[in-house]
Design goal:
Elements: E1 5-11, E2 14-22, E3 30-36, H1 48-51, H2 55-66, E4 70-75, H3 88-104, E5 107-117, H4 119-130, E6 137-141, H5 166-171, E7 177-182, H6 191-202, E8 208-213, H7 226-229, H8 235-241
Parallel strand pairs: 3-4, 3-5, 5-6, 6-7, 7-8
Antiparallel strand pairs: 1-2, 2-4
Amino acid sequence: MADFDTNIFQRDTGRISYYQYQTGSKDEARPLVVFLHGSGERGFKNQMPLLGNDVPKTIHDYISEHENAVLLVPQATWAPELNGWFRPEIRKTLLSLIKSKIQSDNIDSKRIYLVGLSNGGAATWHFAEHHSDLFSAIVPCCGYIYNEDKSFVGAAGEGRYMHPRMAEAKALKETPIWAFHSHDDHTVNVQGTLEATEMVKKCGNQNVNVTIYDDGKVTPNPHGCWEPAFDTPTLLPWLFSQRKA
């Protein structure tokens, strides 16, 4: 992925590496897409978030043809636990990075999009809930609404997830959402997506799309719903069309 610049961002809360692709120039306000990888792509300056799946390339190719925009791919550092974006210090550093980019890269504050898969999908729900004023739309793949003060349903590697809470759903009632999951996902239970989106709809959100793939449709690993998700021709046009009022 030669078009991506590799950088390091450091604050008191911690240090992370990130990769950035952009079209256009800072002379015009541009939309920002932030992509949050899964647990398997943790590390530091090893390009795993770009190489572990095709999502950054798909967004890259779309931007190169259709948008003057910035694509930001941060990387959570490695830890023995598969907790990636769940670590508070990593999330604080990421939030500082995003806010820094808004200023330094002349980002259109009405068009900031967050997408993520697996661990990054759960983090996408989390960031959108806690910073609904920041993100204009989200695309969580095989995720659930994560928060530290909740318990997991199920065990790690056996379809674990977290039940949503009404307060979390209310915080998302104005956020456009397109969520994806495979019905037979054994890593993150599909209920993580179904329960979250249903509760958000009950709170009055009328811009919630949910795509659930039938058993056997996502192969060889049904956890990888992000592959068909980002092959959906209407997904990225939908994403870039979302704007805050």
